[in-house]
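Review form for a predicted model. The reviewer records the input and the model, then writes brief findings.
Reviewer: anonymous (R2)
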Amino acid sequence: MKKILLLIFVLSLSFVTSCGYKFAGGGFLPGKTKFVTVKVFENKTSENGAEIIFAHALSMELMAKSDSKVVDIKTADAYFSGVVKSISISTLTKTSDDAAIERRVSAIIDLRMIGKNGDLLWFVKDFQGREDFKVTTKNTTDMALRTLAITKIAERIAQKVVGIILEDF
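Model under review:
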């Protein structure tokens, strides 16, 4: 599963960055960064693939909302690096015989933007998100729903982060 997610991330990143397609922009990133890259996050959780999901969501949001172009590290003026610090799963509702009906996924990340010369351009610590999902009777379905919940968290965090960055600069 991890290899598949990594392959999807790399292929989508290379496709979007090479085709020249760009959504309406909202300004350049801090330091008038024209070219940026997003490194695969460090994953301090036991959730396989979370580091790729969060990095991919940030890359996609940067491409959609900023005038800075997402490129490979060799071409970049700056890069984002992040840490998925925690992902926790809690039960929200149960049946009368204690079987879970609904669960909540919560995630906490740190994120920083570093300039080509090593300067810290922007950072945030302990950025949080959460998503609820219904539990089924099938483990494979539940794992897919859990991964979808993590993806939704990553997308929402990316939207908020990019919005904050572009508003501040």
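Findings: The first helix runs from residue 2 to 19.
Further findings: The chain has three helices and six strands.
Recommendation: see findings above.
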